[in-house]
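Recall from the previous lesson that a structure prediction takes nothing but the amino acid sequence as input. Here we apply that procedure to Fe-S metabolism protein SufE from Flavilitoribacter nigricans. The sequence below is the only information supplied.
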Amino acid sequence: MTINEIQDEIIGEFAFFDDWMDKYEYIIELGKDLPLINEQYKTEDHLIKGCQSLVWLHADEKDGKVQFTADSDAIITKGLIALMIRVLSDQEPADIAAADLYFINKIGLQEHLSPTRANGLLSMVKQMKMYGLALQARN
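The prediction returns the following tokens.
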């Protein structure tokens, strides 16, 4: 699936929920299903700067596609990084770097997160796009 197809799928899923408490619960569930990052990547080098919570992110490239793994010490933040991984993992580096992540606004994340969480989400996006750019330049 393309990045936009995945985003449209997520927008559809969030449309099922009428209130934000249900949406938060869904985000938390997504975080619980996030495959754990290998402990060797839970280091200072893999921490996303700008997040109030601790968020570790690692990227590998396999067969021209980027594979992201992550973890966080906060349940909602873990759900947010799980959403980001769902959208951007298994995509080509150039597509990640150029992605317009419109689903964030369409599902109302930006307006329903606290300012510190919203900044953290932007930091996640920035870091994932930086990995895309770096891997694209390496190739």
